[in-house]
Amino acid sequence: MATDPNRLVRALVYAVFGFLVTLAVGVAFRVEMGIVLLQSAAVALSMVLVTFLLATAKL
Questions:
Q1: Which of 6, 18, 29, 31 is paired with 58 by a 20 to 30 Å CA distance?
Q2: In whole angstroms, what is the distance from residue 20 CA to residue 6 CA?
Q3: How far is residue 45's CA from residue 53's CA, in Å, rounded to a whole number?
Q4: Cα torsion at 29, 15, 33, 39 (round to 10°)?
Q5: Can you tell me the distance from the alpha carbon of 8 to that of 23, in angstroms, rounded to the nearest whole number?
Q6: Per-residue pLDDT, 3
Q7: pLDDT at 1 over 50
Q8: What are the distances in angstroms from CA 10 to CA 31, 33, 34, 49, 59?
Q9: Which residues lie closer than 8 Å to 41 by C-beta, 6 or more apart?
Q10: DSSP assigned state of 6
């Protein structure tokens, strides 16, 4: 199985980037902070999961 050895680093970078971008967009649109943080966390988690799934997939 060909796996990406840097998948953990890539997943963490994607998670931080996704969290910050989602947070910035929520603040720009003046959404309540609790909702923004929840949505940002969901985006970061989904980006980590997708990164790991794609890195370990047999394509």
A1: 18
A2: 21
A3: 12
A4: 80
A5: 22
A6: 60
A7: no
A8: 29, 27, 27, 11, 18
A9: 19
A10: T
CB 43 within 8 A of CB 26: no
The pLDDT tens digits of the residues spanning 11-58 come to: 889 899 999 999 999 999 999 999 999 999 999 999 989 888 887 777
- Asked if residues 6 and 31 have their Cβ atoms less than 8 Å apart, the reply is no
Q: Tokens 């603040």 correspond to what residue?
A: 27
Q: Output the six-digit token pair for 28.
A: 């720009």
Residue with tokens 């309540």: 32
What letters, b where the CB count within 10 A reaches 16 and e where it falls short, cover 22-59?
Answer: bbeebeeeeeeeeebeebbeebbeebbeebbeebeeee
